[in-house]
Amino acid sequence: MDLALLEDFLELARELNFSRAAEKRNMTQPAFSRRIRALEDAMRTPLVLRTTRQVALTPAGKAFQPRAAAIARAFADAQREALEAAGRTQRSLNLAATHALSYTFVPRWLMHVAGPAEVGTLNMVSDTHRQCVDLVQRGEASFFISHRGPDTPQDLSERQFRHHVIGSDRLVPVSAPDAAGRPRWRLATDDGPAPYIGYGAASGLHAILEAHWALHGRPDLRQVMSSVLAATNLEMAKEGQGIAYLPGSLAERDLDRGRLVPAGDASHHVSVQVVIYRPRSRLSAHCEAFWQKVVRGSAV
């Protein structure tokens, strides 16, 4: 069976839309639909429910999805091992990181844990949490760095991936200052819901905040916009559009310079970890050596 059919199915399982999945796979929708049919023929059971209004996975499709991801990742690992045995690999790291961390934390952390010679050629992808998870599940990234909340369901199976804490952070509610230097918008006031600049569902910070608020209570907020990029929310907060919950590692410079001010006290902060994920399966010798330095290094 053509292993690329698995990638087609995994893309459809992520998008649940034939047109978008076909576009992501760089083919026409009819051609993409034929390939999904070919995979279902090979599996001898329907994997996808098709209606005029929506696309959903069948019970067989839901059961097959993690297996397909594991097979795709195993093939990527086998290909890498074959190239390594043939002496055709380079000293390189394929690293995925969420947008918020790739701007500030990751460059500092890399220089803290290893020098340029030990990192080798760095191929870093900065994307949404959801896309980064997809990359590491498909074996296209060996490492993935993201925020992790204590109350948030994890997207990567502990049976297939391990993680290591490399830092700590906090999500801080911030606002633009008024003329007197006080927050233009504040939490916990009697003036009604404060305008809130939220995160899109593809953002890991969205999941962290929603899980935290489900347990500890949601502030009185009225969402006025959302974005998957923390950097976009930072700029909109600076423009006075509302309150944004931003990673302290991203907002600290603007807080120090007074371009943003806290919109609530420390009781509204959400503590998070910064973690790095990797597959439990063996990586290249260079990546394994890098992982050992990560484990031995101190968190920042």
TL;DR of this structure?
The chain has helices at 4-15, 18-24, 29-43, 59-85, 99-103, 105-113, 116-119, 129-137, 204-216, 230-238, 248-256, 285-296, and strands at 48-50, 55-57, 92-98, 121-127, 143-148, 161-175, 194-199, 221-227, 243-247, 261-262, 270-279.
Shape category: globular
Unreliably modeled segments: none
Strand content: 15-25%
- Supply the CATH architecture of the largest domain: 3-Layer(aba) Sandwich
> So how many helices?
12
End-to-end C-alpha gap: 46 Å
Q: Give, in order, the helices and strands.
A: HHHEEHEHHHEHEEEHEHEHEEH
Radius of gyration: 22 Å
Q: State the CATH class of the largest domain.
A: Alpha Beta
Task: Give the helix level as a range of percent.
Answer: 40-55%
- How many domains? The number is 2
Number of E strands: 11
How confident overall, as mean pLDDT? 89
Main structural class? alpha/beta
Please describe the biggest sheet, giving its number of strands, its sense, and whether it closes into a barrel. Answer: 9 strands, mixed
CATH topology tier name of the largest domain: D-Maltodextrin-Binding Protein, domain 2
